[in-house]
Amino acid sequence: MKTLYDKLWEDHVVYNFDDDTSLIYIDRHLIHEVTSAQAFEGLRLANRKPWRINTNLAVPDHNVPTKNREIIDDPISRIQLETLDKNCKHTGITKFDMFDPRQGIVHVIGPEQGASLPGMTIVCGDSHTSTNGALGALAFGIGTSDVEHVLATQCLVLRKDKNMLINIGGVMEKGISAKDIILAIIGKIGTAGATGYAIEFAGEVIRSLSIEGRMTICNMSIEAGSRVGLVAVDKKTLDYVHGRPYSPKDNWSKAINFWQELKSDNDAKFDKVIEIDVSRIEPQVTWGTSPEMVISVNDSIPDPSETKDIIKREGYKNALNYMNLKPGMKFNQIKIDKVFIGSCTNSRIGDLRDAASIIEGKKVSKNIKLAMVVPGSGLIKRQAEDEGLAKIFIDSGFEWRDPGCSMCLGMNPDQLQSGERCASTSNRNFEGRQGPGGMTHLASPSMAAAAAIAGHFIDIRDL
Amino acid sequence: MRAFKTFTGIAVPLDRSNVDTDAIIPKEYLKSIKRTGFGENLFDSWRYLNENDSSRKKKTNRKANPNFILNKSPYDKAEILLARENFGCGSSREHAVWALSDFGFKAVLAPSFGDIFYSNSFKNGFLPVRLQAKEIDVLFNSSQSFPGFKLTINLKDQIVETQDNKNFRFSIEPNLKTRLLEGLDDIAVTLKYSDTIRKYEKNRSQLVPWLFKEI
Fold this sequence. Notes:
Number of strands of chain A: 19
Order of helices and strands of chain B: EHHEHEHEHEEEHHH
Strand content of chain B: 5-15%
CATH superfamily of the largest domain in chain A: Aconitase, domain 3
Oligomer: heterodimer
Strand content of chain A: 15-25%
Largest interface: A-B, 88 and 65 residues
CATH topology of the largest domain in chain B: Aconitase, domain 4
Number of strands of chain B: 7
Number of helices of chain B: 8
Distance between the termini of chain B: 33 Å
Distance between the termini of chain A: 47 Å
Strand order of the largest sheet of chain B: 4-3-2-1-5-6-7
CATH class of the largest domain in chain B: Alpha Beta
Number of domains of chain A: 2
Structural class of chain A: alpha/beta
CATH superfamily of the largest domain in chain B: Aconitase, domain 4
CATH architecture of the largest domain in chain B: Alpha-Beta Barrel
CATH topology of the largest domain in chain A: Aconitase, domain 3
């Protein structure tokens, strides 16, 4: 009768308060430089010590340059990175520094290192922590006050979310990826469609996807309003986790017995169920400034006057104005200036293989000012180099960079200039997200790669 | 944390839905390691006509956008923000709440909020109030028609009162209400349960020992 979310929740209840909230134990805390400094400062001011030092893992990712990282020009970025360094040294928290091959985007390295495991509660001061839910872990983003709370107590006071099931069935056409599926879901239910719910993604399509594909889907749960995205454990999960540096070794068989129960019961009750048929999904792209402003690549830019809801209509008008687009324009004729392949959504090895297979032997279009690939971690970078993917990218005219969040949000030097239009594999197309005045179109790695070659988006199924 | 008291202030209507935390405080301004000073860059790209010098080599003279409502008197002295649905969606950055507070806002009223923003607010003595969309419409009309229109927020009785004596009751999670009214230190409250947490850890480390392996 229980959902996977119910089970994970109950396993972590330390104490139930009488006001509908619970004290929930946090197994793993991942830390990056942007949202942690004030939390460490708070601890110091209150003369508190971290509760369980050796369950925290820190990595710099948002501010790190993706080339020539020995020199950080922006003094404020540098201070933020140095502050993380000092805080970790002072408390004894393990940190992968910028030059460690294990360094990368926090949501990529957690699973990669086996620091994120099935059945865990995992938090980080970053909304895309839901990525880790692909392993059957209860993982969600928190603010800085909660970062401090977890450091000090290893717990959070939480109210349980409602349960939502998104059941994904049908047959995926060639060229359609996990990114297209999650964009289609957000387009359908909206950016507040799952607010207050924990989403479990299930169905035959989820089973058929790799763990990396499942991560892409769970990653963007927050773009549908939900802090939590989950996928039940199956053989693929166990195979993925096996042999990673922080995965259990002595207790492996005990662990897998435990993990195999991490699925919703057959008769579990969900507060809301949504059915998605992927057979009808075409390559998805965003046209506007909210991740719900999604269309198929062959569609035209929508006309706000056809939208009945007055607030939504105004939102469409603002978006068209910002994106410098007109209703009725064919999306696949809009020229783009930059291409970014990376981010915690799409920077894993499978993403890079997908993109490389599209561009092999071709050249980046002349109207593209910059096409860049930013692997999710140093280890992914190395693997891609060993597999020959890096050479394919470089030969095509892509820049091959060092790992980090990079142009997903441009806290480092990788930014769009005002008026530049970007095909991006990241997760947010908000105004100014990739740089003030920059315009973002979200898409899958294959679609972004194909756009780099054509100079505009094309339907990769036509290749 | 400071306690939230009943107060009266000017309301300012921000007529956009899905205002994300990137819009509230853009990433260029997340690099500070302090909790204060973010108010200057609240709604930065809407509030100013020119961008900051990104090299930070010199201080940019920012030009206020005269059409943006927070730059118009008397809205520039507002303490209550009126917003549309899904306010504060997106990134978990608590800097969004710090920026609103630092600017001088004490509360935001909207039909719905992003979850993480909502939860972050309460940790900073800042009150997000959920009202029905049609109630928000009424408040938008009043504050647009009468610049300087004041609202009183009474958290104890869960009522928003307008200067023309309309009352709107709002619901709020009891624990969050208590926390704001009393200005509690959340960590100190949790630490009262230290023994319970240790007991949980002891049981759990026997059941799932691999979760207690050191990193």
